[in-house]
């Protein structure tokens, strides 16, 4: 592509994105297409000859756009958010423009040094301990996998990296997490070679948070049986209900048994920017590693996962590998982030964080996050006042777990599930809002999570009105 054409389409695409952001509420939140519909409209074989940008861009709008779910629609209340913001999108554009691969310091010193700086900014913003050092990973799943592999290596004197799993020894290493933990923990346990059978799901209390005494008992029992407790993954803000595992008593147990503590605060970590929410990280100084995703709730577009560790040496001793072609001058002042995680190649992700933090400032970021929490509380108050609905979990921050319970008649759990699923599907089919569900202690639960950058009281009010109108059909 010649520069003239690039410039022309660059401008056209920025204009298109600006219009898209401006008019996003005209789109249905959830894509209203059937499986296979988009693929059927695409050629089965790749083009042999070059095509015009005009045709490619038109097909993007005509064929692909109807198959998009609009995560940046302010009535997106599903899952956890993956929000973004204008400064983040602009920085991502620059990252693509630079096209740098930032695996070691010399492949882009600015990328490495900016990453160090912005990760330390994040550390300060969340009130994480001074000694923690950060690195950007792609996702929380990868970050948790890194933590599990490091825990495995520290517990075995970095022996499994070297010798593989000696006969029978793998079965001795045990990982603990709560029954409400994210599936990425089990995935990491499988990939890191612990095996699913060696993951203990610790019971949770009425608030869906891990019961530390149960953790203590499980560790004691395993030790008695000759096993080696290796890692505890605590969650701050579980996916189903944003419950908060109490880090202090969990950390004390880990400390006593010399077990690695990893904290998964994928979405909720952002809330620790608020002084009134800092309590969610009480005891975080016990953690060996900690992850939260600016790509969830900090207005930084996917992907950007902030991983912190207390002892970077444990990380680099686990992941460092040095083929000759990557050997560069050793300067103790320099970090090579390729040794801080799984992939060798690394995108320049720090740039978008830098843009976002500077553009909003801490105060601006706090205001947005605080307003989301207030909106969730507001929605909760409406649910509580209406006898047709019931709350299913405490609201700890920006997520409301509830369900419709028709006032007349006795309903089984199966009937309530069918009714609420029908309600959710009808709401989502309307295209006006998007919510998702979960199961809490065996009970089907609807979740409304406030976290899109531009969600206001009006959007939450309209969701409530739509919900009220919809329940009359059930
Ligand atoms: N941990 C928790 C608590 C989550 O809620 C999620 C996703 O929602 C994850 C981990 C996985 O995040 P990622 O998509 O960044 O791997």
Q: Percentage of helical residues?
A: 40-55%
- What is the fold named in CATH at topology level of the largest domain? Aspartate Aminotransferase, domain 2
Bound molecules: pyridoxal-5'-phosphate
What would you report as the Rg, rounded to the nearest angstrom?
Answer: 24 Å
Q: How many H/I helical runs? A: 15
Give average pLDDT, whole number.
Answer: 96
Order of neighbouring strands in the sheet with most strands: 1-7-6-5-4-2-3
Uncertain residue ranges: none
What is the N-to-C succession of helices and strands?
A: HHHHHEHHEHEHEHEEHEHHEEHEEH
Descriptive account of the structure:
With 474 residues, this protein is an alpha/beta fold. The protein has 2 domains: 93-356, Aspartate Aminotransferase, domain 2 (3-Layer(aba) Sandwich), CATH 3.40.640.10; 362-471, Aspartate Aminotransferase, domain 1 (Alpha-Beta Complex), CATH 3.90.1150.10. Helix content is 42%, strand content 12%. It has a 7-stranded mixed β-sheet, sandwiched between helices. A 4-stranded antiparallel β-sheet has the order 8-9-11-10. Helix 10 links the parallel strand 4 (228-235) and strand 5. Helix 4 runs antiparallel to helix 13 (350-385), helix 6 packs across helix 8 (183-191) and helix 13 crosses helix 15 (457-471). The longest helix has 36 residues, at 350-385. It is globular and about 60 Å long. The protein starts with a helix and ends with a helix. Bound molecules: pyridoxal-5'-phosphate (PLP). The site of pyridoxal-5'-phosphate (PLP) has 14 residues, from helix 6.
């Amino acid at each position: 592509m010649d520069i003239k054409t690039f410039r022309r389409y660059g401008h056209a695409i920025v204009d298109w994105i600006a219009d898209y952001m401006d008019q996003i509420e005209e789109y249905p939140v959830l894509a209203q297409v059937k499986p296979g519909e988009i693929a059927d409209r695409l050629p089965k074989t790749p083009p042999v000859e070059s095509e015009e940008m005009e045709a490619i861009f038109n097909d993007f709008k005509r064929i692909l756009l109807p198959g998009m779910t609009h995560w940046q629609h302010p009535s997106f209340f599903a899952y956890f958010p993956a929000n973004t913001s204008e400064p983040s999108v602009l920085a991502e554009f620059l990252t693509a423009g630079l096209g740098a691969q930032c695996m070691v310091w010399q492949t882009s010193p600015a990328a490495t040094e900016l990453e160090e700086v912005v990760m330390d900014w994040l550390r300060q913003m969340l009130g994480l301990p001074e000694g923690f050092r950060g690195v950007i990973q792609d996702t929380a799943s990868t970050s948790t996998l890194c933590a599990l592999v490091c825990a495995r290596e520290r517990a075995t004197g970095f022996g499994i990296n070297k010798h593989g799993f000696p006969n029978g020894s793998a079965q001795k290493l045990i990982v603990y997490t709560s029954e409400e933990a994210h599936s990425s923990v089990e995935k990491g346990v499988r990939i890191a070679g612990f095996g699913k059978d060696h993951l203990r799901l610790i019971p949770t209390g009425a608030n869906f948070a891990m019961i530390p005494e149960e953790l203590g008992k499980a560790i004691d029992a395993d030790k008695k049986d000759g096993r080696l407790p290796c890692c505890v993954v605590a969650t701050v803000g579980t996916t189903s209900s944003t419950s908060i595992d109490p880090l202090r008593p969990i950390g004390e147990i880990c400390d006593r048994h010399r077990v690695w503590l990893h904290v998964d605060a994928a979405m909720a970590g952002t809330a620790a920017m608020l002084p009134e929410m800092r309590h969610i990280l009480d005891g975080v100084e016990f953690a060996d590693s900690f992850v939260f995703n600016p790509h969830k709730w900090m207005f930084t577009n996917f992907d950007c996962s902030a991983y912190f560790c207390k002892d970077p040496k444990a990380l680099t001793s686990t992941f460092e590998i040095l083929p000759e072609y990557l050997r560069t001058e050793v300067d103790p002042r320099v970090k090579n982030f390729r040794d801080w995680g799984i992939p060798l190649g690394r995108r320049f992700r720090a740039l978008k964080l830098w843009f976002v933090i500077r553009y909003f400032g801490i105060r601006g970021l706090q205001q947005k996050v605080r307003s989301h929490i207030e909106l969730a509380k507001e929605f909760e108050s409406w649910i509580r006042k209406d006898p047709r609905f019931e709350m299913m979990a405490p609201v700890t921050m920006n997520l409301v777990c509830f369900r419709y319970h028709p006032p007349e008649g006795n309903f089984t759990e199966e009937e309530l599930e069918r009714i609420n699923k029908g309600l959710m599907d009808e709401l989502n089919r309307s295209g006006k809002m998007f919510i998702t569900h979960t199961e809490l202690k065996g009970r089907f639960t609807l979740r409304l999570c406030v976290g899109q950058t531009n969600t206001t009281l009006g959007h939450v009010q309209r969701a409530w009105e739509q919900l009220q109108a919809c329940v009359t059909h059930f």
